[in-house]
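Bumping with the actual sequence this time:
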Amino acid sequence: MGTLDADPKPRRGVDASRAMQAVGAFRAFGGASFWIAPNLTARAYRAGPVAPDHLSARLAGAREVALALGPLLSDGEDRSRWLRLGLACDLADALATLIGRRRGEIAPATAALCFLTYAASVTLTGAALRSCDGVR
């Protein structure tokens, strides 16, 4: 199990502990929001209520919480791997949003808010990755 202070070491002026805490808090808040209050979170994205059973929203929320905790509870190359998996999920989410927007399934305002969220996640995750030793 990793600790935030023991690994990784800061590089390029980025404090590793703060970068990890920021990306963890960002993902955990988003994931917990979708799991606990899927309709409220969807309305915040101007998407309206989610599916009646809330399954998709809660599955996505659980994934985000796992992606928040994985890097916080690991160290070294395992931490970097978790962070890269988070980036891959952000890219897949952005692609899914783009496809949905092109098909007319997602409103422009909703797509814009989603892309802002992905950009924030990618920025925080990138900062955490750059601050890790052993990132390739």
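The tokens above came from a reply further down the thread. The two ends are 22 Å apart (CA to CA).
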